[in-house]
Amino acid sequence: MIQNLKPWMPAPPKLRSPEEVIEPEPVAKALISSAISSQDGPEAETNAST
């Protein structure tokens, strides 16, 4: 007897329940900046100049 077998597929990820979701704390507007940082790499410098 020959059967048509489906390839194995992992189970989809389970959704978190609303109790498990942790909301991020809001960031003060004074702390938000779009200026280039000393931690930005050289590619940020070249992109900013174009």
- Count the beta strands: 0
What is the molecular shape? elongated
| Percentage beta strand | under 5%
Mean pLDDT score:
77
Q: Distance N terminus to C terminus?
A: 67 Å
Order of helices and strands: H
Radius of gyration: 24 Å
Largest sheet, if any? none
Summarize the amount of helix as a percent range.
Answer: 10-25%
Quickly count the helices: 1
Structural class: mainly alpha
Residue stretches low in confidence (pLDDT < 50, at least 5 long) are none
Q: What is this entry, summarized?
A:
By secondary structure, the chain is mostly helical. The protein is 16% helix and 0% strand.
Could you please describe the fold and organization of this structure?
- The protein has 50 residues and is an all-alpha fold.
- It contains 1 helix and no strands.
- The longest helix is centred in the C-terminal third of the chain and has 8 residues.
